[in-house]
């Protein structure tokens, strides 16, 4: 019988047996002399070395047998099987490779050394059966090996056990050495090499056989060391088994892309990556991995290696920040490169179609246009959208109206629009099948804007439950230098760690451990780690394990001929004493500077030019720097030589970048300050001279031009005669930055432009001065630098030639006042400006004046159709258009909608209101004012509850939420959020769903610090929780998360909320608080309390609101109930109820869907008060049917409960219980478990009685 195990297992058994034998000797040491013990230990070591020789020679034989097969190059250790027969003989063979004849000479050599027999490599037909028995055989063998030492205490018995367990040899190691005296070791080497035995394996055999003359640092000391080397050789045959002369360079070192060490760090990284790739992310938490380390620790390589080797099908977008590039442009360039690569790959067509579909589903046409402006590479994906929208904008321009308001396009909220676009883009790009790794590399060079973008991308969408994918399958990765952090960066990291929406994995990459660096050097030199260990000791000591430093120190040894490839020995060799005496620079930059100084001058010049540019340079820049083919080819040739020196890497035909950013820093650092300035200026002037300034090509390199000119200026290199030209270019770059919401870059460009002006310029440069100071003031405000904004505005107001030229500045100033809640001063300035524009306007407006304006406007519109207004002439009076801006009416479209609200409030003319509020929306769309469309659309949704199903408008408000986010209109976003929460509660939507959505909106408002929206939303949310059955208003829960969001210890309950509203005279908030108390009292059947809060609500009334309809309904039902309970006031309450019924008989004409069931219920209660019970029952049932038909499940439950009360009052307990049961079912379906429980307790007590 033959037992089959793997070679790996067999070697492990040898190691185990060696250790146990030594343990046995240790136990015997007490009874032996020291001399005896040393002899026994030496004999044991010799015996295991003899076994190792046998293993190595058998391995040689198996490899030689397989040399004729191409598969031999892919042999790994697990390809080998050890067959142990009953006699204890071991045979090694390959599993699948055929035997190669003609090995007689090799067999003769091996037999001469070990007297071992050979076995054929023909596949064993019983292998399947043997596999089935393998685990059992392994267990038996382990027991045999384990018992061999313990059962045999004397040396002879123990020696016999080894022969049974493993291959028997007829000659000891000493006999083999004696035989080899006749044929030298080198002769054996030659014989083995002549048969193609790899050099490393020959060296292993000869080092095993040769006891004397072996370097003490590299000699074998145990079978464990031999096994490790054997496993290293065969586990990576392409590195160690095949000679480097045939498979690698013999003139320079190649470190490749292998990740050495980092086992624990990689496990942490892959744990986060695995969570992202799963399809069970119930909590929707985002995963962020932060990788830190000193320069050269291998942060970028670490991330790239793990992502590329993953099995999850990752797509990667890599944004690598750079000191000389605008940070946001680095991010957009990374996304552009990603889409260019995807679109160039025909196999990705299905994936691209999915991305297009997702973006079209989640973004409006105007949002897609904005995204295309940000990422030009995706314009080809949306030709129909761009064609349609551009056509509309062209039409509006022809009519004399700008498509966008200049100030609105640069508003303080537009960066939120950018965040929203990127969030939707990431959601479209990633999925479970294609998870995304978004890598923000070198964050120490990112600005605050990019850190805010990263934070926003990891935020939960405020209504994320509605999205198919909220970017959950995106792994966010950031790397940074641990010695170059700043307070701002650390502050962002702290926020990430404190966030409940983000799981942060922190990974610190230190220097490589000694074992890891030895593995690295071993594989690079293609030598076993045993042989490279002495060299590694020195390298480790000099580099402290820094990966980048190790690489360049080793390369410097090659450069200095201390480390060479020996053609005779077919291996790398080194002078260990010379390595010891080689000094290493104190910093990596010093090392690299020395390396660069040794290069030819033309290569260094090329690297200097490249270091002045961005992280990657391709032909789009080079063709303007070197216009003649000869000069360009010469420059490219220099870059190619640098590629050969492992300084640059080349991608595609003409794109170059430094292998590491430290090399770029080093190339830049070797220049003096003056040379840096001259180099930047030459690049900038070449780009200006050779690219036409008014072309798309020049627009594409505008930032490169301006950055070079500005960089030169900082080093004192410029040309004063061209300062006005340079200022104009900075103005252009700043405006482009504003368009993409990169306000920090915009501010740097505007500052540079103003500095180049050297003071306000009149004459031909007046307009440019005006634009620069206007824009500089705007972006200062957008960057919250109010002091700088005021400085620019003072100069603007002092030098502007006329009042109209100051208006842009006034608009910025007033917006700043409003943002700082200085409304009083802002209004005084607005009134003053309006008077200057010829428009009288009073702050003290009373309802009578407002009513008169509504009547006047209604008279003006009388006889005009909606089409007449939409197709009317566009306003040409610039002063009037400015007047509208300062009234916050960007055009007549919003004016129509405000008129509609006035008609509604003062005349209750619903049809007129709806007519013109929709006309306002159509007018905005016809004007192409993209930034206004979400706002006016939201107002249509808010007003449409009169005549459209309430449930449908919930979905419309969700859409408005996303659209308002996209344009950055946070003021109206809060209005939308409040209405969404209120309607979710009142329209019969499942309360559990409503609670989740409203909680998400609450946290969304908190994230954007809209505290004015939090107050009414918290009140609404508490009502939902109470109906569900949660009490958030008890004393022991004062610090619950809802109130904790406010950050105000005085507002810690509903009472505190109402008290705050009354003390601050916040009528709208007080009205909201009273309504929520009314709602809870009503549903709790506390009708007296409900009537009280209904009256309080009415006292706070300022203008018509959506809850008014329900206040009327709740008060009407409460009044009818009180009329039957309070005999003394029955007539008064009945009048109140009849008044509510009268109103609802009017409402139902507008929408029977929304109001019919409520009207029928009021009629039922009215008949009950009058004693007409049969009519009342009929109306109750009709109300139940209508409520169910129109999906108001909560009001169907209400009608059933009230009908049950009527039956109970008239002694029909059976019918009452049936109605109560139906009501309870409806409440449970609604999610109002508190109401269902109350009803259950009430009916249970009645049954028990």
From TrEMBL:
InterPro entries: AAA_16, Hybrid_Histidine_Kinase, P-loop_NTPase. It comes from Skeletonema marinoi. This is AAA ATPase. Residues 259-461 form the Orc1-like AAA ATPase domain.
